[in-house]
Amino acid sequence: LNLILSMAQLALTSCNLFDSSADRVTVHFINRDGERLTATAKEGESLLEVVVNQNLSIDGFGACEGTLACSTCHLIFEEDVFQKLDAITDEELDMLDLAYGLTDTSRLGCQVCVKKAMDGLTVQVPAEVADMRRELEVGKQSK
Ligand code: FES
Q: Among candidates 86, 100, 115, which has minimal Cα distance to 11?
């Protein structure tokens, strides 16, 4: 477990190359109800950090605070943007596999770093959310 946690922390910090003078990037989130939420992100922030720092109202998003343990930060990208994202890690892939409504262009928002080239990006919040921590708890209780 410790190994998993330290890998998650490594993954967490991999985005943090930004400083106060970092470029601003506009990101749009289409929420579950179809509402468009627009945020001004800093280059180097993860999309989870954007949601948290800008107080975007996305129900249940980022429940594990980016430790790759929940999949509630599942986001669906446009094909052309998805192709340009950094490579996915095995740890992200494993957690993503457990997300509801998985698509070919799905990623976990806590693992995707904002880049200048993403300015104007629109991502879709899937209709359903799976919190693997909760599912595991329910599983334990029903045994
Ligand atoms: S916030 Fe939990 S996996 Fe991303």
A: 86
Q: What is the mean pLDDT of residues 13-27?
A: 69
Q: How far is the CA of 129 from the centre of ligand 1 (A)?
A: 11
Number of the ligand 1 atom closest to the C-alpha atom of 111 = 4
pLDDT of 10 above 90: no
Question: What is the value of pTM for the model shown?
Answer: 0.82
Sheet order of strands, 74-76 included: 36-42, 24-30, 121-124, 74-76, 106-108
What pLDDT was estimated at residue 115?
A: 94
Strands 24-30 and 74-76: unpaired
Atom of ligand 1 nearest to the CA of 108: 4
Q: Pocket around ligand 1: residues whose beta carbon is below 6 Å from it?
A: 48, 62-64, 66, 68-73, 95, 108, 110
What ranges make up the beta strands (E) of the chain? 24-30, 36-42, 74-76, 106-108, 121-124
Does 14 or 74 have the greater pLDDT score?
74
